[in-house]
Amino acid sequence: MRSSPLKSPDRRRWLGAAGCAAALSAAGALGSRAATAADRACASGSSRVLVLYFTWAGSAKAVAEEIHRLLGGDIARLEPQEPYPAEYCATVDRAKAERESGVRPALKSGLPDAARYDVIVIGHPIWSGDMPQAVLGFMESQDWTGKTVAHFTTHGGSGLGRSHDTLRRLQPGARLTEPLAVYGWGGVRDLSSASKWLRRIGLLR
Ligand SMILES: Cc1cc2nc3c(=O)[nH]c(=O)nc-3n(C[C@H](O)[C@H](O)[C@H](O)COP(=O)(O)O)c2cc1C
Questions:
Q1: So where are the chain's domains?
Q2: Is the minimum distance from the CB of 8 to ligand 1 under 6 angstroms?
């Protein structure tokens, strides 16, 4: 789970084309494996958590699965009805054409109804400095007013790019936490930033 088979070329950088004190003290006595279980109970509490992610080469999937392992709840992948090519350059070409024409690629159906959740974690790779058009289209279809929304990106050097501003614009009623950007060009080497982030934003103790 630490690294996923990646389709992107192996280059170092993208170049541009509440209430859980008892559970926690018990966890302290039981060791790290039990602590993870207690952490999960703590994080979920009465909150219903949904982790949503889009991925092309596997990095955002790896981060999303780590977050799901830590928080519990449900996890679902945003998958385009028409899959992107396996080849990097062909994917870049298609993504560029979609951005330039403003297309929102349709997603496969069967996603959980976000209205049923209190906390939504949304993650995606940065494409051309922003969220992929398929994620953009999905976000435009959602109203996450009143929900806690934790946003992460995987990237090859752009960090969050413009994507967090985009998310804020599309979900003005959501309570956006501090976002997380994970370097993921050629795979995610270190998933520890995910648990640190979840603790920082109060979703994990
Ligand atoms: C079409 C496309 C466009 C990309 N554009 C950017 C970009 O603008 N900035 C950046 O830092 N990385 C960019 N990347 C690299 C990815 O964001 C990075 O490798 C990410 O970790 C991939 O996540 P994934 O494995 O979940 O697909 C791009 C990758 C692709 C395929």
A1: 18-46, 48-200
A2: yes
What 3-state class would DSSP assign to 121?
strand
Ligand 1, atom 21, lies closest to the CA of 184
Measured CA to CA, the distance from residue 111 to residue 96 in angstroms comes to 26
Instruction: Write the pLDDT tens digit of every residue in 28-47.
Output: 333 333 344 445 544 555 68
Q: Which CATH superfamily is domain 48-200 in?
A: Flavodoxin domain (3.40.50.360)
Q: What is the pLDDT of residues 152-179, one digit of tens each?
A: 999 999 999 999 999 999 999 999 999 9
Q: Across residues 89-105, what is the average pLDDT?
A: 98
List C-alpha distances in Å: 192 to 54, 100, 167, 189, 195.
Answer: 20, 36, 24, 9, 6
Mutate to test the pocket of ligand 1, among 56, 67, 91, 135 (most ligand atoms within 8 A of CB): 56
